[in-house]
Amino acid sequence: MWKKINKLKVFFVILILVCNISKADVIYMPGISYNTSETSAIIDSTNTYRRNIDLQVEDGIQYSQNEFFKYLIKEEIDGFNINKKLYEDTNVDSFYANLYDIVSRHSFDDASLVLDYILNYPQTRVFARYNINKDSTYNYSNIPCLTKENLNTYEKDYYESVVKKIIDFLPSSFVDNFKYILLDSDGESGNLASCYALDNNYVDYAISIDINDIEDLYYFKTTLVHEYFHFLSLNSTQAQLKNGKIKNTEKNYETDDRIFNKESYINLFYKLFWINEENRRKAYVGDYQANETDFVTEYAQTSLVEDIAESFYTFVVENEKPIALNYVRDKKIMFFYNFPELVKIREEFREKLF
């Protein structure tokens, strides 16, 4: 093992010496959002990539933060040529294409997911993925380059207990659209959960959970309420994809790729609470104490999408309807009582919350 490690050290020292990365534009991947102002994204991700390679070698090629680097090591001579080209390339498209080529050899179906974590969340470790079946059963599904091929007994029992809690808590219809649950962690007190579409059609979804932040069961469950409403308000039934033919004549809420339906939750919420310029200005000021009568939480100020999700979570957890409606925050909570299907979901959640 010692000889193998030292050979690899020489290999990567040579690799680093011959390579040079200049600043380039941010990397784009299908279905993933990027901050276009981050022009140093390639440099940062590549430096992290190099550091992790060094760590991987020092750890004796044992499983550490990311399985991806083990697979790069297995590329050997061919990998050296590919990686040398990867480091020297400052064109964003070919940089991504080269990296995608390496990953897809080992994790073709999940290459975009793997690269999303490597490039955008390098400090996040992925522990397990569980596919969700229509009968609410689930099974472990390895992600080559990110997770272990086989779990030990402790890992299996613990991870499955977390997945069971999620499935038991969410509405039974959850299985119709959610394809898998991802268990990861960015450390304690980071991002607890996220819900996201798996394609640009917004039909299939996944949810990720930070397994280091779930000790507070009530907070864990209320976060799931918030995330589940992202799915309810953003799925394919709520909006139409822009195709160059659809015109937004009614000035409904729209994003770069979609126009939301007139009766969609987000559009109705938008026209009541966000279309007004003064309301939008309050949202982005960031002074929650000055605007706490307008927003249910400080996080709700950050965007329309988070405002409606936080308002829905408050609608679920608060025992009584707001009475006076003197404040905008109370009107936002009352908004959800106009939808019988959401009232029903509220009741389902509350049975399991309290």
Offer a concise description of the structure:
The chain is of the alpha+beta class and 354 residues long. Helix content is 50%, strand content 10%.
Task: Using brief descriptors, characterize the structure shown.
single chain; disordered N terminus; 15 helices; 354 residues; five-stranded mixed β-sheet; alpha+beta; two-stranded antiparallel ribbon
Tell me what you see in this structure.
There is one protein chain. A hairpin with a 7-residue loop joins strand 4 and strand 5 (205-210). This protein has 15 helices and 7 strands. Helix 4 (76-88) packs antiparallel against helix 5 (92-107), helix 5 (92-107) crosses helix 6 (111-120) and helix 13 (304-317) crosses helix 14 (328-335). It is of the alpha+beta class and 354 residues long.
What are the SSEs and their pairings?
Elements (H helix, E strand, L loop, with lengths): L1 H16 L23 H18 L9 H7 L1 H13 L3 H16 L3 H10 L4 E8 L5 E3 L12 H17 L4 H4 E8 L7 E5 L7 E6 L6 H18 L4 E3 L16 E3 L4 H9 L3 H9 L2 H4 L12 H14 L10 H8 L4 H14 L1
Parallel strand pairs: 3-5
Antiparallel strand pairs: 1-2, 1-3, 4-5, 6-7
Helix pairs in contact: 1-2, 4-5, 5-6, 9-13, 13-14
